[in-house]
Amino acid sequence: MKKKISILGSTGSIGTQALDVIRNSKDFEVTALTANSNIDLLEKQIMEFKPKLVAVADNKKALELKKRMNLYDVEILAGMEGLLAAAREEECEIVISSIVGMVGLKPTLEAIKHKKTIALANKETLVTAGKLVIEEAKKNKVNIIPLDSEHSAIFQSLLSGKQNELNRIILTASGGPFRGKNKDQLNNVTFRDALKHPNWSMGRKISIDSATLMNKGLEVIEAKWLFDVDIENIDVVVHPQSIIHSMVEFVDGSIIAQLGPTDMRIPIQYALTYPQRKQNNVKKLDFSQIKALTFEQPDMDTFPCLKLAINALKAGGTMTAVLNAANEEIVKLFLNEKIKFNDIPMYIQRVMQYHNNIINPTLEDILQSDKWAREYIIAQF
Ligand code: NAD
Ligand code: MG
Questions:
Q1: Centroid of ligand 1 to alpha carbon of 13 (angstroms)
Q2: What separation in angstroms does the CA of 11 have from each of 38, 69, 177, 280, 324?
Q3: Which ligand has the minimum distance to the alpha carbon of residue 246?
Q4: For residue 365, what is the domain's CATH number?
Q5: Domain finish residue from 113, 146, 179
Q6: What integer pLDDT is reported at residue 11 of this predicted model?
Q7: Ligand 1 centroid to 96 CA: how many Å?
Q8: pLDDT above 70 covers what percent of the chain?
């Protein structure tokens, strides 16, 4: 029996790599696909993978795709309603949550409520509503299997001990394209410089987050919820080669790490085949080509976003949703050349400062806080 997979965000960096994993395996079939607006690519994906259901967030584009697919046996839906329908598609067993941004939260929750196993790439889901999402997953006995390379590494490393034997989690960070630079040197960098990640090729938003170290901050928050650890037991270490994808330390001082090539298809495949491992055609690691594995402290003075994320996690409540929303809007402004790189943390910090934090928020509180933070940023431009 083939495992039935739906991909939310199939046209993105993670989505297309997930389809590549599926293309190269006999174990999976695709039941639903979604995208924001790239219907040319969606059309190709429909032809190749023959999903039953496809959702396009953009209403006009959905209509256009519907016309194009007139003669095909595929249901085309539009908007958030369409995304939710794709998330709960009846036959699907595993939902790959790989939309970028907090817009992925509702579809991911919908999939959990319908007892789908979640292969989670969308970190914004846990950053904004980690407590609610984990509670909902427990209630529905749903497994959330991380796709993010660091969290997949931790998930795999944790298999060699028990939860009460865990001492700390050590998240590795590449340091991004600006590692080693100081604030002065970053004054005039552009989004094009920021998009040049040394080790990974990813979507634009996460690439900017990697340059500011916000990505690592979001990953600290994601780790807290996925693995039920306190912030005091999560360390970040910069490891520029990105060979060690993360580590865990047990109470006896033993450290278990997961290593591998910088290829997202490994964690994606593992999330789909878990608890098994399967052969693939990913290029294997050649240690004779690796000169050294090095480690250093993250530079939180030059890259304050990591600190802001840690502070938001310590504050709890709706603060992480506000951090995330402000960051999403600020990254858009930076990509549109409306603000400078060094101003990114300043704006996020300001929004956090003015937020009336709600501890133990409902989903509605979280969505309201998200909206408030976005409007706060947008009003300044
Ligand atoms: P991407 O920009 O390449 O793709 C995003 C996908 O989301 C696309 O399919 C797009 O159509 C869809 N989308 C965007 N806005 C939407 C909207 N408003 N409504 C519906 N769909 C929308 O992003 P990515 O790099 O693939 O990242 C996806 C998620 O995975 C992010 O949360 C990111 O942090 C996480 N992640 C990515 C990587 C990576 O290597 N790319 C690694 C780890 C985690
Ligand atoms: Mg990562």
A1: 7
A2: 7, 17, 25, 22, 23
A3: 2
A4: 1.10.1740.10
A5: 146
A6: 98
A7: 11
A8: 100
